[in-house]
Write a structure and sequence with these properties.
By secondary structure, this protein is mostly helical. It has 21 helices and nine strands. The strands form four sheets. Strands 4-6-7 form a three-stranded antiparallel sheet.
Length: 508
């Protein structure tokens, strides 16, 4: 796969292909023409008597300090140096790659005024595998992701540090080894590189993709648990969901029905006296569906944002205008990321309740804590504790970041979005939720084992085989952390999703 950036058509799938798959990147010729036109116009601004923010003035609270044309290059370099003030754990390479791609695509919109040479450098860093070391904390999500973007872009000018082919090097050394010339910044270019929402959007784009995998896997887990608990599929009848036509809800119900189709387990209790199942089974499509609809909203916001010009001021060379605005404000992404985190948290919350029903002998009809030798063995008792702990942690993380604001830059920037915090939280919630689903699937596979020789539906049977290829049935106590980690990997690398889809076709 090859990704050509033009400032308008980048997708989350493209970001994943570049960030995780190493897909090569190039710049669209039409985008290059727009970039060159805006860059040429910036050169004309240096001689203007009227100040132009960030070109012939300082930044933030220093917007009223006029900078001479001779000092414009120093101004841009100083901007990167001074704003590289982040702290905390380093962002993983996949996020850094997404940042580089999204910043290049934003410049390709042609409103930023940076030269094509700058965009070419970002693309070369992607294609050659030069990954700046970027601290994860320090952005308030307005006036752009200033601190983390500054750390990212230090390497462009030969400063900072970067990872290259397994080594941690100075920015200058990493660029030299990769054969990429460093850039001497010109007017507006430093500001164009760091004044934007690309860090929160990079984290967010990967999180949206991962939650979409999680949502389909949650349907698999719920269907598998329904089989293990000998639940009914009647609540998934399409007529029920047509009567309340939320799209995510209907899709989730269709998935669960397809996964359970042909189930001998279900046939074995079709005429039993049970009238209806608990909410965690019966209402799975409603809960999963609401999460899906929230995820779809986040996807739309993120894909719109990644194809936007988000710095300031914006250059409109055809109109002869430079306009100071606020496209760097992360509010749209911040709200979407808070919503995405809540959605992933709810997928985990209802999953843990299903796990509890399987390990609790008063509710399950299965051996206590899914072990045939209870007392001497504790079985899967503590796995449910772990799921409960993760769900509780998610409740704290799901508290929205966007509702907070602390003014910065001498109160010039008096309302900020905290969007990068929202995105980081969504990423962590998604990771926790993946482990919660892994625990449910581990328990559900054990429950299905106890119902042999009855077979579940074809989709669930395929998932069960994929689990058992990595994790054996629990006959006697062993370290469950290893089992959980193996199944969590199967969840996150889409092995279980692919197994189900090979059996019943693509899930929605």
């Amino acid at each position: 796969m090859h990704v050509s950036i033009d400032g308008a058509n980048l997708s989350i799938a493209d970001v994943v292909a570049v960030a995780r798959g190493g897909a090569p990147v190039s710049l669209d010729p039409d985008a290059r023409r727009r970039i060159d036109q805006a860059s040429a116009y910036v050169d004309t601004l240096l001689g203007r008597e009227r100040p132009v923010y960030g070109v012939t003035t300082g930044f933030g609270r220093f917007a009223d300090v006029v900078i001479s044309p001779e000092d414009s290059a120093t101004l841009q370099r100083n901007l990167l140096l001074s704003h590289a003030s982040g702290v905390g754990e380093l962002l993983p390479d996949e996020v850094v790659r997404a940042i580089l791609l999204l910043r290049a695509n934003a410049l390709a919109c042609g409103y930023s005024g940076a030269r094509g040479e700058v965009v070419d450098t970002l693309i070369a860093m992607l294609n050659q595998g030069v990954h700046p070391e970027v601290p994860s904390q320090g952005s308030v999500g307005s006036s752009g992701d200033l601190a983390p973007l500054a750390h990212t872009m230090l390497v462009v000018i030969g400063e900072g540090t970067a990872r290259y082919r397994g080594d941690t090097l100075t920015g200058a050394e990493a660029m030299a080894r990769a054969g990429i010339p460093v850039v001497a910044l010109r007017a507006k270019e430093g500001l164009a590189l760091i004044n934007g929402t690309q860090v929160m959007t990079a984290i967010g784009s990967l999180a949206v993709y991962d939650v979409s995998v999680l949502a389909r896997t949650a349907d698999i887990a719920a269907a598998m648990t329904t089989e293990a608990l000998r639940g009914t599929a009647s609540a998934f009848d399409p007529r029920v969901h047509a009567a309340r036509p939320h799209p995510g809800q209907a899709a989730s119900a269709r998935n669960m029905l397809r996964l359970m189709e042909g189930s001998a387990i279900r046939e074995s209790h079709r005429d039993c006296s049970k009238v209806q199942d608990a909410y965690s089974l019966r209402c799975a499509p409603q809960v999963h569906g609401a999460a899906r609809d929230a995820m779809e909203y986040a996807r739309q916001v993120v894909e719109r944002e990644m194809n936007s010009a988000t710095d300031n001021p914006l250059i409109f060379p055809e109109d002869g205008d430079v306009i100071s605005g606020g496209n760097f404000h992360g509010e749209p992404v911040a709200m979407a990321m808070d919503f995405l985190g809540i959605a992933a948290s709810e997928l985990a919350s209802i999953s843990e309740r299903r796990t509890e029903r399987m390990v609790n002998p008063q509710l399950s009809g299965l051996p206590p804590f899914l072990t045939e030798h209870g007392g001497l063995n504790s079985g899967m008792m503590i796995a449910q504790y772990t799921a409960a702990a993760l769900v509780s942690e998610n409740k704290i993380l799901a508290s929205p970041a966007v509702v907070d604001s602390i003014p910065t830059s001498g109160n010039q920037e008096d309302h900020v979005s905290m969007g990068t915090i929202a995105a980081r939280k969504a990423r962590q919630i998604r990771a926790n939720a993946a482990n919660v689903l892994a625990i449910e699937i581990m328990c559900a596979a054990q429950g299905v084992d106890f119902l042999a020789p009855l077979e579940p539906g074809a989709g669930i049977a395929a998932v069960h085989r994929a689990v058992r290829a990595k994790v054996a049935h629990l006959d006697h106590d062993r370290v469950l952390a290893t089992d959980i980690a193996r199944i969590s990997e199967l969840v996150q690398d889409e092995t279980l999703l692919r197994a189900a889809e090979q059996a019943v076709g693509s899930l929605e």
